[in-house]
Amino acid sequence: MEQPTLGGQGLVVSALGLGCMGMSQSYGPGDDQESVATIHRALDLGMTFLDTADVYGPFTNERLVGKAIAGRRDELVLATKFGNQRRADGSWIRVNGEPGYVRQACDASLERLGVDHLDLYYQHRVDRSVPVEETWGAMAELVQAGKVRYLGISEAAPATVRRAHAVHPVSAGQYEWSLFTRDLEDELLATVRELGIGLVAYSPLGRGFLSGRITSPDDFGENDFRRNHPRFTGENFARNLELVERVRELAERKGVTPSQLAIAWVLAQGDDVVPIPGTKRRSYLEENLGTLDVELTAEDLAAIEQVTPRGSAAGERYTPENMANVNA
Questions:
Q1: Mapping DSSP to helix (H, G, I), strand (E, B) and coil, where does residue 230 land?
Q2: C-alpha to C-alpha distance for 45 and 68, rounded to whole angstroms
Q3: Choosing from 56, 101, 121, 122, which is the catalytic residue?
Q4: Across-strand partners of 308?
């Protein structure tokens, strides 16, 4: 597998990463045994870039990942995040970027993951009440202390990224990017490329919609957050299903699955882009890895653009409460 470098500080990752959130929350009940097997399979196949966060679960996903990587630490690039502060029962506290909390959150993540350092540590969301320079000053101290190797930021506004980068180099920016979500193309993409920051694309399958496996809101279990997601409810669902059908038709003509076409499109956006599709099943992991054998021609890309132009997805990408914490 190709090993691109994210940013200008030397962070080398696999061309595809594994998003681990869904193993512990948001997409229905988990299966820890299958999740651990999926992480092991990913490592065996050369997918070395694992993504988690303290808020996933909360806290349980880091413990799960820690269990899976025990004895294999030197085989992987481990990324986690802080900033979305929740209690153990899942109740919300706040977006927290206070320096003291940064240090506390890092130590807690290290303990849950069972490691002595993190390869990539993201500010998950920007705390509007704390100057980003203060947050990043504390993050830089973590690098100096050897607890963290590289720093990243997620869903931050372009001006905020510049301010953070001035304190300590940002190696990676993690943003939602898919055929359904292209907001970052307005200004953010040019900013990170100007600064030499790698782009980690989460939800490249539009939270599973672009896989083609979702045909009805009834497909979601009781604890699946998509039941209340703007793009998966009401008229938006029907309109987005039409877009997915167009993607499915293109994929069929190409001889690939809809998931592979959608991830291949993200990969085609540049050598500085690393998608991290999430899954908790080995079968879907192997399907996603098959994307690396898909080559999209200029004609393919033009056809994809024609059926899913920018802004074609119906509905916001988060609920209003969560949208308030992006582009900060």
A1: helix
A2: 15
A3: 56
A4: none
DSSP character string of 260-328: HHHHHHHHTT-TTEEE--B-S-HHHHHHHHGGGG----HHHHHHHHHHS-TT-S-S-SS-HHHHTTS--
Please return the burial class of 229, using the count of CB atoms within 10 Å of its CB with bins 0-12, 13-18 and 19+.
buried
- For residue range 185-211, list pLDDT tens digits in order: 999 999 999 999 999 999 999 999 999
pLDDT in tens, 267-315: 999 999 999 999 999 999 999 999 999 999 999 999 999 999 999 999 9
Query: Could you tell me if residue 314 is left (phi over 0), alpha (psi between -120 and 50 degrees) or otherwise beta?
Result: beta
| 56 is a catalytic site residue | yes
Global pTM? Answer: 0.98
Contact 24, 64 (CB under 8 A): yes
In a 10 Å sphere around its CB, with 0-12 CB exposed, 13-18 middle and 19+ buried, how is residue 328 labelled?
A: middle
